[in-house]
């Protein structure tokens, strides 16, 4: 059994200037980022690097068309190393850039098993959610064939992941809220997964503690307390990335994809919409083992009886991001059986990591309970 995958070397710097110096950013490097991040953090450093700004190629999650256009422009720069500075979209695109030397997205999927690293890859996350700097998967919307698919390869791990908490200081509160809840879900799902190990649980449980303690402080002191907590949230999201990079995510993510796909709900928010519903469903089927251990841990952190942990968790999370029923996103009752079928048909990779197996009727029941 694989205990833990720890591939990228991990660094932390106080400033982008320290990072640029230590990593000798310069010719041959291409920084993929957003214009506002570059303006605020890198422009003043006057580095002889190439730059591409992701938003010039389209908004939202990465599509094949967006990535192909970026690959073409990246090739023109002759870059040898990709420096990804951004959130989930930028990180996913950069992982693909690292394995392409002229191939398009379709070419890369066709030979996914044989991909090789063509350029160095350094990932600097600027949200506290995906933990994707530690993993080797990119999710690309393949508009040409009409489906969202993960591209996974050993060659897509970053060489180095770099944490710079100062980059998060301008994070809008709603982005902080959805991305940190995503990290919490990564930590919980990976800790309940049959692929969890003592090593993944070490990181997963610590991430849960750091995130919930941070939320408790924000609830008590208000959103102004966020800036000094950002480093903790960034580290917690990285821990959760390490945990789910080995042990995987499960039903919360699987059930959130149809909602996110059809009604364009941000990833962290659609996960939150499913989170306690899935935990309650697990508990109604089986409450021993990893779930019992998790509930005991949550009850200590939340200061409540074990029987009430999910309600207490929801009360706390509601201070950060108010939970909405599915119908508030525009979901109709007729969507629910379709969502359940799509989960069973397309999310097998995630559903294999569930704490207890869930069939289509149980998945439908979860959706109905959240409707
Ligand atoms: Fe996620």
TrEMBL record:
What GO molecular functions are on record for this protein? alcohol dehydrogenase (NAD+) activity; metal ion binding
Listed A to Z, the keywords are: Oxidoreductase
> Coiled coil where?
none
- What highest taxon heads this organism's lineage? Bacteria
Q: What residues does the Fe-containing alcohol dehydrogenase-like C-terminal domain cover?
A: 177-371
Gene3D superfamilies the record matches: 3.40.50.1970, Dehydroquinate synthase-like - alpha domain
Show where the Alcohol dehydrogenase iron-type/glycerol dehydrogenase GldA domain sits.
32-165
The record ties this protein, via SUPFAM superfamilies, to: Dehydroquinate synthase-like
Family affiliation: Belongs to the iron-containing alcohol dehydrogenase family.
> Which protein are we looking at?
4-hydroxybutyrate dehydrogenase
């Amino acid at each position: 059994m694989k205990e833990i995958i720890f591939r990228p070397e991990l660094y932390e710097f106080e400033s982008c200037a320290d990072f640029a110096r230590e990593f000798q950013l310069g010719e041959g490097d291409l920084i993929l980022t957003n214009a506002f991040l570059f303006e605020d953090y890198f422009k003043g450093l006057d580095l002889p690097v190439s730059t591409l700004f992701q938003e010039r190629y389209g908004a939202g999650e990465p599509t094949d068309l967006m990535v192909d256009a970026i690959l073409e422009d990246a090739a023109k720069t002759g870059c040898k190393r990709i420096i990804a500075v951004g959130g989930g979209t930028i990180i996913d695109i950069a992982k693909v850039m690292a394995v392409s030397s002229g191939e398009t997205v379709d070419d890369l999927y066709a030979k996914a098993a044989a991909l090789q690293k063509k350029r160095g890859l350094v990932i600097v996350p600027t949200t506290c959610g995906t933990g994707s700097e530690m993993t080797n998967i990119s999710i690309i919307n393949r508009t040409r064939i009409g489906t969202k698919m993960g591209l996974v390869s050993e060659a897509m791990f970053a060489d180095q992941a770099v944490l710079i908490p100062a980059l998060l200081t301008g994070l809008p509160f709603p982005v902080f809220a959805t991305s940190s809840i995503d990290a919490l879900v990564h930590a919980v799902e990976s800790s309940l997964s049959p692929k969890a190990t003592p090593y993944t649980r070490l990181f997963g449980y610590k991430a849960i503690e750091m995130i919930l303690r941070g939320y408790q402080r924000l609830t008590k002191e208000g959103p102004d307390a966020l800036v000094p907590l950002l480093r903790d949230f960034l580290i917690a999201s990285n821990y959760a990335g390490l945990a789910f990079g080995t042990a995987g995510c499960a039903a919360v993510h699987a059930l959130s994809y149809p909602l996110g796909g059809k009604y364009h709900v941000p990833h962290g928010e659609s996960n939150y919409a499913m989170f306690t519903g899935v935990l309650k469903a697990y508990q109604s089927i089986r409450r021993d083992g990893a779930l019992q251990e998790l509930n005991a841990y949550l009850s200590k952190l939340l200061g409540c009886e074990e029987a009430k942990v999910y309600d207490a968790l929801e009360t706390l999370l509601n201070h950060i991001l108010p939970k909405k029923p599915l119908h508030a996103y525009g979901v109709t009752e007729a969507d629910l059986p379709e969502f359940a079928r799509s989960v069973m048909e397309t999310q097998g990779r995630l559903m294999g990591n569930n704490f207890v197996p869930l069939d289509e009727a149980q998945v439908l029941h979860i959706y109905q309970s959240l409707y």
